[in-house]
């Protein structure tokens, strides 16, 4: 890779960091002591459209039908068949996403076992795009976000899911929904946090926990913390996921040529309660699909929960830097790149810029980085990303 260039002025960096810190929640986390008790799944009460399996474990009919289409018994799926990652059982196509609620699966203890799906690249991985990429940015050391996160980073959280390698973790952001103003249930993350790309299919048991580990406790202290500190706003199960066709076809272990389209939108529902995600968290971030050319952006910030060493995956961190361009090859779209020491686990975390007139807009998400952990790259969000977002928003319009 190219030599490190000198430090660059960051006139907007302070304002950017301050803007997210001021994203105070309108509602605040629940203080209900019942939050420490096991909660009932959103699908616990069967409806006429539910599959009459075993009482409270009934699945919505559309999910049950999808599983049967692929030769999977819905109740066996609940009882552990989801652990079968045989090629013919691993749902791969865009329309095949299935994620029924499994009550109690994501306990605080299981969340702590989740690993990072790092997308790290060696020098040989990036050599093909050097005629497009700007010089390698100087390293920027990630700093811890202030606590409680419900006041300083409420829309940022952790995404948990199961893969053939076991429980995994990414980061995500609560985003605005134009068709459900003030009541969004949308989460932005990376494509590789929901789908394995060309070599696999949809991951399973996807849940989102905004403001995870609200008080920034150490791993040892978190073990004895009540559930409401692990997930102060509760746990939200994805009932829909959408990512790009480019990622599904071309995404790979180190990002591949699908990295420039490594983004995803989730629609989620609470494991308990009826309020929307935005109402519960108290805020959501708009997405800017028309951000200016990377070189015209003064500063960009990335937030997430880095999990690979030297980080432990339970503390929210952020990096702010002036972005440059990065490309994985001469025929791929250039991505944003910033200096940042965050590691795997921060994947999918939102990248923000200041909006004219104040506030933040999401313009990218963490996708890939080098094995040396000196920088991160994220996709530019254009027409393709907007199409996925719009389709997901319309699907759940006014629900």
From TrEMBL:
Chain intervals for the UniProt region annotation (Disordered): 30-58
Listed InterPro entries: Glutamyl_endopeptidase (IPR050966), Peptidase_S1_PA (IPR009003), Peptidase_S1_PA_chymotrypsin (IPR043504)
Keywords: Signal
Signal peptide: 1-26
Biased composition (Low complexity): 37-52
Protein name: V8-like Glu-specific endopeptidase
Source taxonomy: Bacteria, Bacillati, Actinomycetota, Actinomycetes, Kitasatosporales
């Amino acid at each position: 890779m190219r030599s490190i260039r000198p430090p660059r002025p960051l006139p907007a960096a302070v304002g950017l960091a301050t803007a997210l810190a001021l994203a105070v929640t309108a509602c605040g986390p629940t203080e209900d002591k019942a939050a420490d008790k096991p909660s009932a799944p959103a699908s616990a009460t069967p409806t006429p459209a539910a599959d009459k399996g075993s009482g409270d474990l009934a699945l919505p009919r559309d999910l049950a039908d999808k599983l049967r289409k692929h030769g999977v018994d819905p109740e066996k799926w609940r009882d552990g068949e989801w652990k079968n990652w045989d090629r013919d059982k691993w749902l791969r196509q865009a329309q095949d996403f299935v994620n029924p609620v499994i009550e109690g699966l994501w306990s605080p203890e299981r969340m702590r076992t989740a690993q990072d799906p790092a997308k790290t690249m060696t020098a040989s991985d990036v050599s093909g795009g050097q005629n497009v990429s700007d010089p390698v940015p100087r390293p920027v050391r990630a700093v811890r976000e202030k606590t409680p996160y419900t006041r300083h980073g409420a829309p940022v959280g952790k995404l948990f899911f199961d893969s053939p390698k076991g429980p995994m973790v990414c980061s995500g952001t609560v985003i605005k929904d134009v068709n459900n103003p003030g009541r969004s249930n949308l989460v932005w993350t990376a494509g590789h946090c929901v789908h394995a790309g060309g070599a696999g299919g949809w991951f399973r048991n996807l849940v989102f926990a905004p403001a995870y580990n609200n008080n920034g406790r150490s791993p040892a202290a978190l073990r004895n913390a009540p559930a409401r500190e692990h997930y102060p706003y509760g746990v939200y199960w994805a009932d829909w996921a959408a990512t790009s066709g480019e990622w599904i076809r071309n995404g790979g272990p180190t990002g591949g040529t699908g990295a420039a389209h490594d983004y995803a939108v989730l629609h989620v529902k609470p494991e308990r309660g009826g309020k929307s995600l935005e109402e519960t968290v108290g805020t959501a971030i708009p997405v800017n699909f028309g951000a200016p050319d990377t070189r015209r952006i003064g500063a960009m910030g990335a937030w997430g929960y880095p999990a690979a060493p030297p980080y432990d995956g339970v503390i929210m961190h952020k990096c702010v830097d002036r972005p440059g361009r990065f490309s994985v090859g001469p025929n791929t779209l250039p991505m944003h790149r910033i200096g940042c020491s965050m590691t795997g686990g921060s994947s999918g975390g939102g990248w923000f810029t200041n909006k004219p007139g104040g506030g933040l807009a999401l313009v990218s998400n963490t996708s890939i980085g080098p094995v040396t952990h000196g920088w991160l790259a994220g996709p530019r969000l254009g027409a393709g990303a907007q199409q996925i977002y719009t389709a997901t928003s319309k699907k759940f319009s006014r629900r």
